[in-house]
Amino acid sequence: MDHSFLSAFILLLLVLDPLGSLPIFISIMREVPKPRRTRMAAREVGIAFAVLFAFMFLGGSFLQVMHLSERSLEVAGGVILLIIAIRMIFGSAGESAYGIEPGREPFIFPLAVPLLAGPSAMATVLLLASRQPERIFDWIGALTAAMLVSGLTLLLADRIRKILGDSVVSAIEKLMGLVLTAIAVEMVLAGLKRYFIGGL
C-alpha cells in the first residue's frame, strides 16, 4: 500500500488521534496552571516527535537487526491500528484507547509516550520509511504537519471542548476510528497480498 504525502499525513493524524486525546489531556492537566500547561504540552509533543523521527530513520536498521520483513511489519501495523480503531469506536466517553489513567503530571509518560508516540504511530512511521525510503522527506513533512496539528489541538483542548461539546468530540473520534479501521484492514490485506504473491 503506497502512500502520497497527503495520505501519509491523514494516516498519521488518524493514528495520533488528537481529538481522542482531548479528554485525557484535559483530565491530566486540570490541576496544572495554564501558562505551565502550554509549555508542558509543547514539550510532550516535541518529545513524541523526536521519538517518531528517530524510529523513521532507524526503521530500516531495526528491521534488519530483528530479521523482520516489510510484509510482517505491514500486517502487524495493520493489526495494531485495527485494535486501536476498535477501541476508538466502542470505547466509552472519557476512556482512553491506550488505557491511560489520568491524574498525574506528565513527563514523557503518558502524553508523549504512548498517547502520541504509541505502538501504532511507531509502526506507521517504520512502515512508511521502509516501504518508500526514497520519499523520506515527504514522510518527515507529513509527520511534522501531523504533530503540529496534534500539538495545536492539545493546546486548544479547553476551547475545542467548549465550542464543540463532549458529544461532538466523541462522535468525531468514533468517525476517525471508522476511517482508521478501513486503513488498518487495507494494510493487512496489502501485506498478505505481498506475502502470497512475492513468497518468502
From TrEMBL:
| Bilayer topology annotation | Multi-pass membrane protein
InterPro entries linked to this entry: Multi_antbiot-R_MarC (IPR002771)
Keywords tagged on the record: Cell membrane, Membrane, Transmembrane, Transmembrane helix
Q: Where does it sit, as one GO cellular component term?
A: plasma membrane
Q: Where in the cell is it found?
A: Cell membrane
* Chain segments annotated as transmembrane: 45-63, 75-94, 106-129, 136-155, 175-192
Q: Which PANTHER family match?
A: UPF0056 INNER MEMBRANE PROTEIN YHGN (PTHR33508:SF10), UPF0056 MEMBRANE PROTEIN YHCE (PTHR33508)
- Protein family membership: Belongs to the UPF0056 (MarC) family.
Name of the featured protein: UPF0056 membrane protein
State the organism named in the record: Paucibacter sediminis
